[in-house]
Specification:
With 260 residues, the chain is an alpha/beta fold. Helix content is 47%, strand content 17%. The chain folds into two domains: 196 residues, Alpha-Beta Complex (2-enoyl-CoA Hydratase, Chain A, domain 1); 48 residues, Lyase 2-enoyl-coa Hydratase, Chain  A, domain 2 (Orthogonal Bundle), CATH 1.10.12. Bound molecules: octanoyl-coenzyme A. Octanoyl-coenzyme A binds next to α2 and β6.
Length: 260
């Protein structure tokens, strides 16, 4: 597939994907979804790639939301018939089992904030701004904002943001647990790539299962989550990388991972 709305490159074991509609502040339309779906599928299928970074082009926006111009003329029944927006969670979250990071370089509003929250974690530029302003358009979040933001920052703050449409700056986002870390804008992508390279150098099965374990915490009760965690831990003890990792520790050398 030839991409027109995103850019992709690989650096070692890390894939960098850049939303590339800067004139529209990287607004997310159907073409972006189709291309991102394809790029993430390639990343997932390529055994040489172990972690990905998603960012936005330009200094202004990660993504300023779903494309309002695309949605404004769409016949209402089509939203339901197409199950509009379902592809984001189905193709970008559920099918991607390898870790990926959102590097938020400016506005992450509406669908942009929701896309960032689909990542395994968010690194934010000091200029980043997060928000769910859909109410001002007469609608509401449609790609997970009301659910993932509430789980990330709690009911009170999520409710205030959804009801007023106000933006949260990077410091408040870090304080509230929405982002893992704040990085100066000029260093953001390099820092995210370095972090991704660290993850990519970890035993790959352990990386995937760590991701699955943490995500399980959002889907289940504590008891069921603890059982799932134990089972995944027990499965990992049967891997070649577990034997290698423990031998490497005892022999005071770096591990040589097989991903088996
Ligand atoms: N969609 C399409 N185009 C956009 C979007 C967007 N979400 N955001 C910005 N743009 C475009 C502008 O139209 C403008 O284009 P043009 O130059 O052709 O006029 C260009 O990007 C630059 O934007 P501005 O001139 O507005 O830049 P400012 O610096 O003045 O403002 C803001 C920046 C504050 C980010 C402003 O652009 C803004 O408020 N954008 C919209 C933010 C928003 O409301 N996002 C939520 C969208 S809705 C959504 O994501 C989910 C909807 C779920 C419900 C679906 C059911 C129907």
């Amino acid at each position: 597939m030839t991409y027109e709305t995103i850019l992709t490159e690989t650096r070692g074991a890390v894939t960098l994907i850049t939303l590339n509609r800067p004139k529209s502040l990287n607004a997310l339309n159907s073409q972006v979804l189709a291309e991102l779906t394809d790029a993430f599928a390639q990343f997932e299928a390529d055994a040489s790639q172990r972690c990905a970074v998603l960012t936005g082009s330009g200094d202004k926006a990660f993504a300023a939301g779903a494309d309002i111009k695309e949605m404004s003329d769409k016949p209402p029944a089509d939203f339901y018939i197409e199950d509009f927006f379902s592809g984001w969670t189905a193709d970008i979250v559920k099918k991607v089992r390898k870790p990926w990071i959102a590097a938020v370089n400016g506005f992450a509003l509406g669908g942009g904030c929701e896309l960032a929250m689909m990542a395994d974690f968010i690194l934010a530029a000091d200029t980043a701004k997060f928000g769910q302003p859909e109410i001002k358009l007469g609608v509401a979040p449609g790609m997970g904002g009301s659910q993932r933001l509430t789980r990330a920052v709690g009911k009170s703050k999520a409710m205030e943001m959804c009801l007023t449409g106000r933006m949260m700056d990077a410091e408040e986002a870090e304080r509230s647990g929405l982002v893992a870390r704040i990085v100066p804008l000029a260093d953001l992508v390099e820092d995210a790539m370095k972090t991704a390279t660290t993850i990519a150098a970890m035993p790959p099965l352990a990386a995937m299962m760590n991701k699955e374990m943490v995500n399980t915490a959002f889907e289940t009760t504590l008891d069921q989550g603890l059982i799932a965690e134990r089972r995944m831990f027990q499965v990992l003890t049967a891997t070649e990388d577990k034997a290698e990792g423990m031998a490497a520790f005892v022999e005071k050398r770096a591990g040589n991972w097989k991903g088996r």
